[in-house]
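We emphasize that the prediction below concerns an isolated chain of 90 residues; any contacts that depend on oligomerization or on bound cofactors are therefore not represented. The input was used exactly as deposited, without trimming of termini.
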Amino acid sequence: MRDICKIGNLSLGYKTFIDREPTEKDLEICKWNDNGKTKYTIASFDYKEEYKCYVLRSCLNRLKDFDIDWCTFGFLVHEAYRRLEGVDDL
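Result of the prediction step, given as a token string:
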């Protein structure tokens, strides 16, 4: 599936699965390499049944990257939660 939103070297998109297609609720934030052709997951959203909400999770220690534009990252997190919760404005 395609990216939902790409700003600079960060994008919000759908998770990649080997055994199934992602749903509208399978979201992740990726960072694009300098070549602009490859990307890797830096954070994803997982539903926690016990709390009845989505939780943002770092992929390994990738959120420690000094090259992340935190304003852009925050915007993409906001957009993801807006989509996950199905509201027009949080």
